[in-house]
Amino acid sequence: MDDQPFIQVDPQIMLGKPCIAGTRITVEAILEDLSAGQPEEEILASYPRLTPESLDAAQTYAKRP
């Protein structure tokens, strides 16, 4: 999956941390939720602007070297 349309890095948004495009939801926040064992369905419910595709993109982005 190409994560580029879903992930943005802007120094003026969340101090330049990678975020879901068009939101202030950081990749880091999503990964913390997943690491804590929160099911994907609950994460999606917690962040109404998050889509299954953007959740996948965050995980793909985190695996980049």
From TrEMBL:
Pfam families: DUF433. InterPro entries: DUF433, Homeodomain-like_sf, WH-like_DNA-bd_sf. This is Antitoxin. It comes from Brevifollis gellanilyticus.
